[in-house]
Design a protein that fits this description.
The protein is α/β, with parallel strands linked by helices and 436 residues long. It is 43% helix and 8% strand. It contains 16 helices and nine strands. Helix 12 links the parallel strand 5 (247-250) and strand 6 (271-274).
Length: 436
């Protein structure tokens, strides 16, 4: 199917971008498979996005708007909101996340009035309080969710109601679907996953995977990690006296405001392993930030941060390094949906290929971390003996290897650094065997 559009693009000299070709392919597949209702997420912005060619919307949903893609969408929330409002259509209902700033609402409402879009559906009405928020189904469903997840769930529920109404279906028992959604996991969003090839095939250790890549998402992720991972004890260990440090595996798109993102995300005492991601299919303009640069920004964001950069692509390699830095502390992979995508593909490939092996990279990362740790400790000892300032306050350490470590805690990595920080939080079902 995609080949057809590529050939058509060349024959007719349309000069469509790779993303436009992918979008055309997706919509053609929708038609061929007779999809009754499609949930289409905008690629970037809205007004000028390839997906905005659609003209048969049932409802338009605008979630939380953040400062991102400023090179394309503008530097202010008002400018970005104007792009987002471009998905609205005449005589088509729309919803806005109520947590957006007032000026964002004003921009979207003005545009809606100009083109005759609407009516606007509000997510906090007397009818909703009576029919949804007071129901046992909602209260049970919403109880474990983060605030931003509840906000998004309300928008999705209202969109679902609109679809039912458009199809002349009854909405009478619509809340009954909520219990069935309670344990549904959205890939790459606060997702707890095992990685047997990194942590042992018989182990139960999980990592947290989340595609957060802007300030708002960083704050939400930080809050979730604090309450669910940092103040909980690892298996076989006493509860920590304070929040446990987190080891973050990070990559970000070039052009993102990494400084603001990391200032929100990190806490003193955390560790970071910065890496990169591969080419993004259909979007050749998307490039990863240099891992060394990202590490330096992380170091400047907070004092007392342990840092390691790995310029070689490969999420499993980065996780191997993280494993030996983290010991029993939580590991979180985040910073980019493209990084998450690479991880998912690598994880899927490892499950489908019996010959997939990480022994070599695990050995390389363990030895590299230990070599750098040893070098760091030796330098620290020499500084103490000579009366120089303690190197623990240094901001960076350079080496000729493919990784740099800065501000390392006095600990040596070992193969036993595979305890599961999720074990006591019932976030998964699994045998309680130690990794082999």
């Amino acid at each position: 199917m995609e080949t057809h559009f590529i050939q058509l693009n060349q024959k007719e000299e349309i000069k469509a971008s790779e993303f436009e070709i992918l979008t055309a392919t997706a919509f053609e597949l929708f038609n061929k498979n007779k999809v009754e209702v499609g949930v289409v997420e905008v690629g970037m912005g809205g007004k000028l996005d390839a997906t905005n060619i659609l003209n048969n919307q049932v409802i338009s949903v605008i979630s939380m708007i953040a400062r991102e893609h400023q090179d394309f969408l503008g530097n202010t929330l008002e400018e970005i909101a104007h792009h987002k409002a471009g998905i609205l259509r005449p005589n088509t209902p729309y919803i806005i996340n109520p947590m957006n700033e007032r000026n964002v609402h004003d921009v979207i409402d003005r545009y809606a009035e100009e083109i005759g879009a609407g009516p606007r559906i509000f997510p906090d009405t007397a009818a909703l309080r009576r029919d949804l928020f007071s129901s046992k189904d909602w209260q049970k469903f919403a109880a474990p969710l983060q605030p931003f997840q509840r906000d998004n769930a309300v928008l999705a529920y209202l969109a679902f109601l609109r679809v039912l109404e458009e199809g002349s279906e009854s909405t009478r028992n619509s809340t009954s679907l909520l219990p069935h959604m309670q344990h549904k996991q959205i890939a790459g969003r606060l997702q707890s996953l095992q990685v047997p090839l990194v942590f042992g095939r018989h182990g139960t250790r999980h990592i947290l995977v989340d595609g957060a890549h802007n300030e708002n998402a960083a704050e939400a992720l930080k809050t979730y990690v604090y309450h669910n991972l940092q103040v909980q004890s690892a298996r076989g260990h006493k509860p920590p006296p304070g929040p446990r440090p987190v080891t973050w595996v990070l990559a970000m798109s070039d052009g993102k405001d990494a400084r603001k993102f990391l200032s929100r995300l990190l806490r003193p005492g955390d560790s970071v392993v910065t890496t990169t991601f591969g080419p993004v299919d259909g979007m050749p303009w998307v490039k990863p930030m240099d891992p060394r640069e990202l590490l330096q920004i992380a170091m400047e964001a907070h004092k007392n941060i342990t840092g390691l950069h790995i310029p070689t692509p490969g999420t499993f390699r980065a996780l191997c390094a993280a494993k030996y830095l983290a010991s029993t502390d939580p590991i979180v992979l985040t910073g980019s949906l493209y990084l998450v995508g690479d991880f998912m593909r690598e994880r899927r490939a490892s499950a489908d290929d019996d010959t997939f092996d990480t022994k070599t990279i695990d050995w390389e990362e363990r030895n590299r971390v230990n070599t750098l740790l040893s070098w760091k400790f030796e330098e620290q000892d020499r500084s103490v003996e000579s009366g120089l300032p303690n190197l623990e306050t240094a901001t960076s350490v350079g080496t000729e290897s493919t990784a740099d470590v800065v501000k390392i805690r006095p600990r040596v990595a070992s193969e036993d650094d595979t305890e599961d920080p999720f074990q006591d939080r019932k976030l998964h079902d699994g045998k309680k065997d130690r990794p082999s």
